[in-house]
């Protein structure tokens, strides 16, 4: 039997974790969309996710809240047993997930991708979901006698003239700013609400007070071969003139083209893909893909290339692309702007990417 295992310590009580494991709407936010099937069975829409090549037909064979959940899974003829064990700790709880293949075989690449998917789901998306749930459980109106899971709306600030009201608005604004500031980081990793489950109302998004975003810095392409003239040159500090340095123009790889696509979106974040196509006769070596994000964007991970981020610019490099072949670069972006869904620019060796 082949086994895949993952374990994570969480700063949340077992009952909150159990809700994230068994609520179909919440499960869709950190693992996969789930639909109820006949006879109490579940259909996990995992086709296309890393490590999955088909949807998973699952049956719950054990459920002991909030300690143990066991599923018997069928994925295109491969049968496995998925176990989730929850143990309380001094800091919160510990979740151990084990998937044991009982019939069939996982291809080597598929199994490696599946292990990475489980690891990322448990260590990144699940903690973010639990933090989000904890924030929704805060009773912000307990003095009014009724509990609420949403942030109160603040009235628009008005100029001086109503001194007492001004103090109240500023005080409420400070409280919400502290709460929202701590929550933005965890909301950035959450996926979009599920779309397949019929009859389920999506969870209402938390109400966030509007903030003024920092305007993006202007960035224009450099003009190769531009010389310094007497009208535009800056005065030299020394008596002896110095020759101007002209940047060498970027030489595009013959036959290399790039296509950009936003693969998925979520609350405060998105995933982008750049596909490199080499239509030339030889391998494309030394290629460079440059993606320009909004000022609030940060790359949290990437596959298919080496990468580095400097401010709003993310540079991808990698091994040669064989002639007639393609390579896909996939990267996750966390962005505090909920309306941001794509980069501001994309080039390969200075040439614009298609799709933007």
From TrEMBL:
One of its GO terms (molecular function) is polysaccharide binding. It comes from Micromonospora coxensis. Residues 198-257, 336-356 are annotated as: Disordered. This is Uncharacterized conserved protein YndB, AHSA1/START domain. Residues 249-356 form the CBM2 domain. The lineage of its organism: Bacteria, Bacillati, Actinomycetota, Actinomycetes, Micromonosporales. GO terms for biological process: carbohydrate metabolic process. Belongs to the AHA1 family. Coiled coil: none annotated. Gene3D superfamilies: 2.60.40.290, 3.30.530.20. SMART domains: CBD_II. The chain crosses the membrane at residues 167-190. Residues 229-248 have a biased composition (Low complexity). The keyword tRNA-binding does not apply. PROSITE patterns: CBM2. Keywords: Membrane, Transmembrane, Transmembrane helix.
């Amino acid at each position: 039997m082949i086994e895949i295992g993952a374990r994570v310590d969480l700063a949340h009580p077992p009952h909150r974790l159990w809700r994230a494991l068994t609520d179909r709407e919440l499960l869709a936010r950190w693992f996969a969309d789930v639909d109820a099937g006949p006879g109490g069975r579940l259909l996990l829409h995992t086709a296309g996710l890393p490590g999955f090549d088909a949807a998973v037909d699952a049956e719950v064979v054990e459920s002991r809240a909030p300690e143990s959940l066991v599923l018997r899974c069928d994925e295109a003829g491969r049968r496995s047993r998925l176990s989730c064990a929850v143990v309380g700790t001094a800091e919160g709880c510990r979740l151990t997930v084990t998937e044991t293949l009982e019939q069939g075989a996982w291809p080597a690449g598929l199994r490696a991708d599946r292990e990475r998917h489980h690891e990322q789901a448990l260590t990144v998306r699940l903690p973010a979901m639990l933090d989000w749930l904890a924030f929704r459980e805060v009773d912000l109106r307990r003095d009014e006698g009724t509990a609420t899971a949403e942030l109160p709306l603040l009235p628009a600030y008005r100029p001086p003239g109503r001194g007492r009201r001004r103090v109240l608005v500023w005080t409420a604004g400070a409280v919400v700013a502290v709460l929202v500031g701590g929550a933005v980081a965890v909301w950035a990793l959450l996926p979009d609400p599920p779309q397949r489950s019929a009859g389920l109302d999506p969870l209402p998004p938390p109400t966030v007070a509007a903030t003024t975003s920092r305007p993006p810095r202007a960035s224009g392409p450099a003009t190769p071969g531009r010389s310094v003239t007497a009208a535009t040159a800056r005065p030299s500090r020394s008596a002896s003139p110095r020759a101007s340095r002209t940047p060498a123009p970027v030489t595009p790889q013959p036959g290399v083209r790039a296509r950009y696509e936003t693969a998925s979106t979520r609350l405060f974040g998105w995933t982008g893909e750049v596909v490199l196509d080499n239509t030339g006769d030889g391998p494309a070596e030394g290629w460079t893909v440059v993606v320009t994000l909004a000022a609030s964007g940060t790359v949290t991970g990437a596959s298919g290339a080496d990468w580095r981020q400097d401010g709003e610019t993310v540079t991808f490099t990698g091994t040669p692309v064989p002639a007639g072949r393609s390579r896909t670069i996939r990267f996750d972006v966390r962005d505090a702007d909920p309306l941001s869904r794509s980069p501001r620019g994309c080039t390969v060796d200075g040439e614009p990417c298609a799709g933007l």
